[in-house]
Protein: Tripartite tricarboxylate transporter substrate-binding protein
Amino acid sequence: MKTWKSAIKASLIGLLGLVSINSMAQTNWPTAPVTIITPWAVGGLADQINRAMSEYGKEQYGQPLLADNILGSGGAVALTEYTKEKPNTHKLILGGEGSFAIAPLTMKVAYKFEDFVPVINIYSSTFVLVTNPRTKVDSIPSLKEYIAKGKKIKIATNGTNSSEALQSAALFNEMGAKYQIIPYDGANEALIENITFEDAEG
Structure:
């Protein structure tokens, strides 16, 4: 727990320190509560990290950090709304490859990467493929056997234009599988559906 909190605290200081330096020499920043927009669902990894950072905002900087979740299109909705606002050093947003690299390739977006100023990389995550135990797929060889049966694979992902959806498509295209990507409003919802999916069978 101590290591986890230390990592969060270090990320927080990096984020706010760089914002302070680049905010027109505003040495008394922040002068009001700071809102950090999370373009993903409540309960997901990004949301949990955002809320964990909020615990240290008032202690370290005298102002609270407020989490605001705005969902839709892998982050594109939140970023679009954010670019319409007047620049504000007290309102920041989290973004990732889904928002900046994938969404512009699959849909028309009203923003570009140059509209934003990168501050700090808060975290990185690893792509992990999990299955319902009833499929009896627990390894790459057993996955290949499942695909060889000609069965269509349904893939639950944490949203449209997410990196998980892109990586899943790349993997199953390479394996020659029949598949359908089903986007959900966040990783938690996708995992619950995977566990309770009635059609999961070997």
